[in-house]
Amino acid sequence: MLVKDIMAANVPVFKISVSVAAAKQEMMKQSSRYFAAEDNDRRWKGMVSDIDIKKAEESEDNFISDIMKTDMITAHPLDSAEELSGVFYQNNLEYIPIIEEDRIIGLVTEKEMLHTLVRLTGAHQPSSKLEIKVINKAGQLAEVAAIIKEHHINIQSVLVYPCQNDEEKVLVFRLATMNPLPVIQHLNDEGYTVLGPVR
Amino acid sequence: MNEPLFIYSENLLDYKFHDSHPFNQLRVKLTYDLLKASGHLSDTSVVKPRKASDEEIMLIHDKGYIEAVKKAGEGSLSSDIAGNYGLGTEDTPSFKGMHDAGAWIVGATLTAADLVMEGKTKHALSLSGGLHHGFRGKASGFCIYNDSSIVIEYIRRKYGVRVLYVDSDAHHGDGVQWAFYDDSDVCTLSIHETGRYLFPGTGNVHEKGQGSGYGFSFNVPVDAFTEDESWLHCYETSLLEVADYFKPDVIVTQNGADAHCYDPLTHLSVTMKTYEAMPRLAKKIADRYCGGRWIATGGGGYDIWRVVPRAWANIWLAMNGIQESGNLPAEWLAKWSRESPVELPRTWSDSPDIYTPIPRKPEITAKNEDTLAKTLYSIRSLKKKNG
Ligand SMILES: [Zn+2]
């Protein structure tokens, strides 16, 4: 999945030469929390939030260019969405502007990022969840997937969780079936530990 | 005529994927037979269903999907296209005449609805219905057509009433919830095993509806191995408070019987005690708020021998104000013992020792209590505000 597939397009924009007073007026008409700042050639220069604008002084010589955040972490529309979640996590960000050839073409906020992660886990599609404890060595995922394939069941998503110890891992499958019993039986027969609810 | 009515004919049993599929409508016949043998179902209470028209099915489903189901039932749908519609899968394999089989079930539930809404009876029971997973354009979880959603949309349009849908199947009633997620005239309440492991994975407490439907979706996802006491407490408390908040004109209940500890597909630990109590409370609510208007359907239920017949018979008994106890009719036991692969229960009720004690019981009970409080938080705070 790419950043362009998950970003919110149509970011509202202020020219950097707009006064804070005018921005305050304009902001009332918008429901956005984040605004881009551009120069007269539509080149992206920075970002201002609704709170930045509200807090800023309305003096005659106070412009968007004076209050905008520059030197920000940005991303490209063709960056990987999965990696972007790591950027959010490491830098504690609220949002990331998406810039292509000096132009702002979108924004990814924590909200878009969370929606994306939910989609990546497959939690939005009807499915049964199977957790399988495997030895931490090459080929385990393929072997389990091959067993699932034998039952003609579509896999909605796969996650691989690390265990507390290094010897094991947990594979989490979301399967498009209401009846995972035949697969569970098969996995048990092959010696896998299928985790389930605890009594 | 104000006696409850039972919708039944043998062609409702044609909804059959194949011999080893867990969904088996023989359970409807087993229930019918049990009620007959116990002397609680007279021929005058039984109404034959009609078949739903394509237009009626299109109240919820896409035309393209209906065409695909028809083709799949004739064996003329390619497997690639079938897959896009959730057909020809392990869960909903294609079978001959599947459109007709589905349309009869929808028709049965619509028949029940018309009888209730036209005042021919107060309570009507359509046990072959209660398929709650099907989506607008996709089969899911053994369900081709979602008769639960269709009947709600049907009575809403035809009779202009507000509907409370109560789903006590062990699985989340996702198809119905999403169909009416932005609708404030349809309130959905689903109590089910948490989606931590179980299909379909949705139905958490924070799914509350959207747009004008916000605050009209309620979910009580209970922990695995929940027992009668906690399940019934969640069911009764949520139903009483949601009904009092929404004040429906009619109640539609989906009575899946797959929360029983014998059910192979789920991980709950309730017994017949739950299936005796739930329909009796539903009736009380229908009588209190809806002038008695109550349409009840079946739903899931995969121990078709030991669980479903007794559980579903209890809906009919509740409608008629009858309480059964003691032994099951000898005639029924004799007839079906020969067919059943498991030993049939001898009595209407379950003994409390049919499952081994659950060590986590206190933890499970406390967790469910916490969930219930979250589910009902908005109603309770509104009530407090209005004094
Ligand atoms: Zn179910």
From TrEMBL, chain A:
One Pfam family, short name: CBS
UniProt cross-references to InterPro entries, sorted A to Z: ACT-like_dom_sf, ACT_dom, CBS_dom, CBS_dom_sf, Diverse_CBS-Domain
UniProt-listed CDD domains: ACT_AcuB (cd04883)
Keyword Thylakoid: no
Keywords for the protein's UniProt record, in alphabetical order: CBS domain
CBS domain boundaries: 68-127
Database matches in Gene3D superfamilies: CBS-domain, VC0802-like
Domain annotation ACT: ranges: 129-199
Protein name, as recorded: Acetoin utilization protein AcuB
Lineage of source species: Bacteria, Bacillati, Bacillota, Bacilli, Bacillales
From TrEMBL, chain B:
Keyword DNA-binding attached: no
Sorted UniProt keywords: Acetoin catabolism
InterPro entries the record matches: AcuC (IPR003085), HDACs (IPR000286), His_deacetylse_dom (IPR023801), His_deacetylse_dom_sf (IPR037138), Ureohydrolase_dom_sf (IPR023696)
Record-annotated Histone deacetylase domain positions: 21-318
A single GO molecular function term of this UniProt record: histone deacetylase activity
Claim: Nucleotidyltransferase is one of the keywords in the record: no
CDD domains recorded: HDAC_AcuC_like
GO-annotated biological processes: acetoin catabolic process; epigenetic regulation of gene expression
Pathway: Ketone degradation; acetoin degradation
Gene3D superfamilies: Histone deacetylase domain
Family designation: Belongs to the histone deacetylase family.
Protein name (record): Acetoin utilization protein AcuC
